[in-house]
Amino acid sequence: MRIFMSLLLVAGMAVNAAVAGTGVPPLPLQLADPQWRPLLERVDLPLQRQLELGLRTQTGWYALIRHHKLAVALVDLGQPERPRFASVNGNSMMYAASLPKIAILLAAVDALESGRLQLDAGFDQDLKDMIRNSSNSAATRTIDRLGGLEKINEVMMEPRFDFYDRRMGGGLWVGRRYEKTSRRLPDPVSGISHGATVTQVARFFYRMATGHLINVRASQRLLDYMAEPGLSHKFVNTLQRVAPGASLYRKSGTWQDWHSDAVLVWGPRWRRYILVGMVEDPDGESILRSLVTVAEGALLDVYPLQFPLLDE
Q1: pLDDT tens for each residue of 270-301
Q2: Which residue from 81, 136, 249, 281 has the fewest beta carbons nearer than 10 Å?
Q3: Extents of the domains making up the chain
């Protein structure tokens, strides 16, 4: 595994050196509608198999997967017109700590786009702090500005989004203000206060990356808030090392043994993907750092096809 990580590091450095001075290509925010298809129509069996094989190589991870304590979603955007999607425990609702703050962000941007709210300097700073630095106080102020928890979850369940869908195990849910004393509004499926499924988070990032989250302008607005992550842990810790030239759009969450991270990586050549990971384990920080290497191995087809699928 150390050899593989070293190879990825060298490959990443070589690619970044090759494009030095040329910049990273822009995101595919305006894919033609005939080419665009929902993420759930982009499931790719070879990528699914490679991802599962990679997860099997890690000591102890298979047990976490079997007990629904590790969930992963991966979207390959190397060819934007032909994305590939794979997931493990994709519809397992898990406690996600601060990751569901992206639901608050979407509700806020939706309100700005419709004219229900106006952007001022304080509101703009709260949105940046809530996402980039995971500020709980900024998140709570934004929840209150939007009219409360119910308003945010109503947006998640609207048919145009469907980011919380009981038929898919749930999804993005904000059931408590981000402060110590606050009423709970648990999600209907699992009774979680701040929850998510990796599939719904991946759908969020996919629609945002391709300009299909509200509209192109709103998608760009969302991307701007998610750029320049202020916390250098989990996925970002590894990516800053192996892909220093890539653009990262990210939101994470941590509380006790629950760790989550979601990132859109947009770099030169093949390193263009969405990765979502959620884990319940005391070593979750380290697991998520290693998950970047496993995901990139799947994208590069490193693992031989020698095991059956996890759900067989």
Answers
A1: 899 999 999 999 999 999 999 999 999 999 98
A2: 81
A3: 2-19+29-299
- Distance in angstroms (rounded) separating the CA atoms of residues 154 and 152: 5
pLDDT, tens digit, 9 for 90 and up, residues 186-221: 999 999 999 999 999 999 999 999 999 999 999 999
Label residues 10-19 b or e (16+ Cβ within 10 Å = b).
ebbeebbeee
Q: pLDDT at residue 255 above 50?
A: yes
Distance, CA of 287 to CA of 278 (rounded, Å): 10
- Phi, psi for residue 260 in degrees, rounded to 5: -145, 155
CB contact burial 95-109 (16+ within 10 A = b; e otherwise): bbbbbbbbbbbbbbb
Residues 6+ apart with CB under 8 A from 231: 132, 133, 134, 252
Question: Comparing 212 with 304, which gets the higher pLDDT?
Answer: 212
Could you say which architecture CATH assigns to the domain 2-19+29-299? 3-Layer(aba) Sandwich (3.40)
How confident is the model over 153-176, as pLDDT tens digits? 999 999 999 999 999 999 999 999
Q: Which token pair is 224?
A: 């701007």
